[in-house]
Amino acid sequence: MVVVQDVGQDLQGGGLGLLGGVAAGVLQDRRPRFQVVGHVAGELSTDFARDNSEQAAQLFAPDAVLEDLTLRTAVVGRQSIAAYLARALPSLPYGQGAQVRHFVGGAAGGGYEWTNPGTSAPRGVNAIKLNSRRQIVQLTSIWDGSLVTPAWITQHLSLTIES
Q1: 25-29, 127-131, 135-139: least confidently modelled range
Q2: What is the value of pTM for the model shown?
Q3: Does the pLDDT of residue 24 top 50, yes or no?
Q4: Cα distance between residue 34 and residue 121, in whole Å
Q5: How far is CA 82 from CA 5, 25, 37, in A?
Q6: 8 Å CB contact between 133 and 109
Q7: Tag placement on the chain: N or C end, fewer CB within 10 Å?
Q8: CA nearest 64: which of 137, 135, 140, 129?
Q9: Considering Cα of 71, then 77, then 78, then 82, what sign does the dihedral take?
Q10: Which residues, at least 6 apart from 12, have a Cβ–Cβ distance to it below 8 Å?
């Protein structure tokens, strides 16, 4: 069963947002398996919003992958993810100031829609895959890259380079 938790109003006022329309009318399930992804998504988004890259990195498995589909980049391994987040999180649209609108999923993972009106890409989606220890093994983010300039993309791609 797909589960949606609405934690905010849609910018157009409909209350469904990017994920809600897919699962409209589905019963909400508050059993522990649902709480797993909600808890992880909540912790991750809070750490992102507060620019707490070290704490966010602790939610990832040692061999995890952080993938940003808009930037067409992947960062592999907890240490590399921590270093990347320390450099990039303050300016990523799903980073500092972002808030969760909806989340969906279960014990194996799910995703959440985020909003961040203070950035050039005001909303997007992060998908989370969890292992049996409730660690993130894959985080995939997507947002509207047409809202930023090619120079912005190039600048943020340079943040993936480890020195």
Answers
A1: 25-29
A2: 0.78
A3: no
A4: 28
A5: 28, 38, 21
A6: no
A7: C
A8: 137
A9: negative
A10: none
Please say whether the beta carbons of 4 and 111 come within 8 A.
Answer: no
β-pairing verdict for 136-143 and 109-115 = unpaired
The identity of residue 43, as a single letter, is E
pLDDT confidence bin for 51, thresholds 50/70/90? very high
**41-55 average pLDDT score:** 94
Q: Please tell me the distance from the alpha carbon of residue 144 to that of residue 117, in angstroms, as a whole number.
A: 13
Nearby residues of 101 by Cβ (< 8 Å), 6 or more positions away: 6, 7, 8, 10, 17, 112, 113, 114, 115, 123
Amino acid at 34: F
Helix (H) or strand (E) holding 18: helix 17-20
Residues 6+ apart with CB under 8 A from 15: 6, 9
Most distant pair of Cα atoms in the chain: their distance: 49
Q: How far apart are CA 17 and CA 113, in angstroms?
A: 8
Q: 119 is written with which tokens?
A: 């950035």
In this structure, the number of other CB atoms found within 10 A of the CB of residue 102 comes to: 25
pLDDT digits over 88-127, tens only? 999 999 999 999 998 888 888 899 999 999 898 999 999 9
